[in-house]
Amino acid sequence: MPNHSTTSPVTAVVALGGNALLRRGEPVDAASQVRSAVAAARVIGRAARRWRLAITHGNGPQVGLLTLMNESYADGEPYPLDVLDAETAGQIGYMLELQLDNFVDHQDTVAVITRVVVDEHDPAFTSPTKFIGLLYDEATARRLAGQRGWIVRPDGDGWRRVVPSPEPQRIVQLGAIRDLLAAGFLVVSTGGGGVPVVEEADGRQRGVEAVVDKDLASALLATELSADLVVFATDVDAVYTGFGTQRQRAITKATPAGLRQLEFAAGSMAPKVDAACRFVERRGGRAAIGSLAQLPHLLDGTSGTQVRAEGRDLQLARRPVPVGERS
Hints:
alpha/beta, ten-stranded mixed beta sheet, four-stranded mixed beta sheet
């Protein structure tokens, strides 16, 4: 049922990263994703009582798996990436919608397959950067790249395929998402960054071979919804300086200017930091990056890395966090 509360809850966009929904190294199978959806729904359900939430999610592992299945079908042309993006938005949207309705008893959930307009002349089409699919060792990745015409790059401890990731320009279903939120629904949208489309001169749209970055699309959604806050929920508890070293330290508070002085891993933390900075710079609200398990505290401003327009450029945790002690 819609939430018809007479109060005006604060609006937050919560972006569920691929690693928040599916841990690294887990099989990309239905059972693993259902377990992750259940865990996410439990946490989101608690937060939804105090906040008006719009949920977005990644799709990197799922769309990568679909491309492998797609290429194993020999009778006809493989489905293009925009169609696979839509398939994953339906798949993950359904799983989240089902489990959220199981755990949230004061409002109903609606999943919206969302188109996002991109520029067909975006330089990303000639310089792929977006990781999708499974993690391979270098030898396997290079072999698959040669066999399938992929472009592969290092990602953490392994190698993955990269595809074009153009900048999101406009969210086509924005009006519907806004109306559903206003009516009291818990909304899941912009899955996988949305299905990328370009607009012709006559206003007609067509899909393109790309995957829109979920974090940038989530920041755009939050900005266009005039949200008060955007949360990037992942599998680490904060943004770190010196990440992966013996002297890594969590960044507890920061301004966009402070974060932009630092370098972060491309394809993982860098897009989240960039998206958080963009939202704060454009909207003047607050952004947070941290663990999905700590979502209520991320929303309250007491956990993770909190990004605001004003304050000290960087505030670090008091002591280094030894590798392996991150939550």
